[in-house]
Protein: Segregation and condensation protein B
Organism: Neisseria animaloris
Amino acid sequence: MTDKLPPDALIEAALLTQTEPLSEKTMRELCVPPLSPDKLIDVLANLKTRWQNRALQLVHTHEGWRFQIAQAAFERLGSLQEQRAPRYSRAVMETLAIIAYQQPVTRGDIEGIRGVAVSQNVMQTLQDRGWIEIIGHRDSIGRPALWATTNVFLSDLQLESLEELPPLTELGELVLPDLIEPAMNDEKLDTEKIEAKVNINLN
């Protein structure tokens, strides 16, 4: 029975079988009796050590704790065509950058910064990935939707908060080069234009 499993085994099993990150509260209450915060820290530290040289690694994200494929393994698996992640165009990446660094923004704001119209396909791509969402509407004519990044965006980039976002010039590397269309490697994000429009300090 599960109540006979030691806490570390039970928590390890939960982390391996759940598709979403687990909060510390959820993991503490999974055990009988519930673990103290200090005991849970010990359990998680031991699990991180146990898995540190394997293909899966235990990581803490904005949404909680989860196992994910180690970066070195991920890069190797990327060579398998059928397992490649979807690639994103320059338009998608520039739109994501503007939303991430200037949120909340309207679609009109994004178009004003990029200087071109933003297609519905671009917004839908970012929505389907779970990286952006509507958080309200601006109190102006037409009440346009206000867009912002999600907790999934922070979790996928392994960030605790928006304050940890890197300089804009590094965003493409953080999202992973394998997710960007090959043609974009030569063009790069138009970071100078975006920086000038949204007044981002790249340091």
